Amino acid sequence: MADDAADRRDAEVDRLAAAIRACRLCRDAPLYHPRLPDEPRPILRINARARVLIASQAPGIRAHLSGVPFDDPSGDRLRAWMGLDRERFFGDGVLIAPMGFCFPGHTADKGDLPPRRECAGVWHRRLFALLPQVRLMLLIGRHAQAYHFRRLGRPLRAGQSQGDLVRDWRAHLGAGPRTFALPHPSWRNSAWIKRNPWFEAEVLPELRREIAQAMAEGAT
Ligand code: SF4
Questions:
Q1: What pLDDT band is residue 181 in, cutting at 50, 70 and 90?
Q2: DSSP, residue by residue, 129-160
Q3: Does residue 170 register a pLDDT over 60?
Q4: Nearest CA owner, ligand 1 atom 8
Q5: Cα torsion for 73, 77, 82, 87, to the nearest 10°?
Q6: Distance from the CA of 59 to the center of ligand 1, in angstroms?
Q7: In this predicted model, what pLDDT tens digit does every residue of 53-67 receive, in sequence order?
């Protein structure tokens, strides 16, 4: 009976993933300005069994072209933070669901635009309702942190900086899914990481311990 329910949820997640991958909303009928500049290529990795969720911002141009998220130096750093090799990172134990599934395009000075807001309104609530098995969430960047902490009933306080959120890591390990607010693993945050040695000394060992535990539970 329990297996039947799990199989039904697997099928539902697969159906929703297929619908997301076929989505063209921001190209054909965007709800917000501007229209998506490129053909949509939603990038996500989901299944109904994994216990660890990486909730990130949006794919960059490299992931847009390859279809593979975090296949770059930022991904290498994230895997090192998590204590996972590529095989486990891209295996069935880890979900990757950015706030915007498609590459949002570039700003005038060649930075990345923020994640498309359409995804949260159209897809995210349905998606996360289908993933109750998640027990550990890595929230990368401000957009993912604001959305998921609000969804979990713990909205960000006014003026709470990303540094505050990361530093308060012990407070995020309470009831409900355990969460880690993380800076983006990009080289752009190397100076912040150097200025805050407690991040590597205190947060990352605990993060690795939690990941190992969650993935071991998922494998049983
Ligand atoms: S960004 Fe989200 S809502 Fe927009 S086209 Fe891609 S999947 Fe659809």
A1: very high
A2: HT-TT--EEEEESHHHHHHHHHHTT-PPPTT-
A3: yes
A4: 23
A5: 30
A6: 12
A7: 999 999 999 999 999
Rounded to a whole number of angstroms, the CA Rg of the chain reads 17
Res 2 pLDDT > 90: no
- Name the percent of the chain lying above pLDDT 70: 99
Q: For residue 68, how far is the Cα from the chain centroid?
A: 14
Among 101, 103, 124, 147, residue to substitute to test ligand 1 (most atoms within 8 Å of Cβ) = 101
Output the CA 26–ligand 1 centroid distance in Å: 5
Contact 165, 181 (CB under 8 A): yes
36 CA distance to ligand 1 middle (Å) = 9
Q: Which domains does the chain have, with CATH numbers?
A: 2-219 (3.40.470.10)
| DSSP string over 64-125 | HHHS-TT-SHHHHHHHHHHT--HHHHTSTTEEE--SSSS---B-TTS-BPPPPSHHIIIIIH
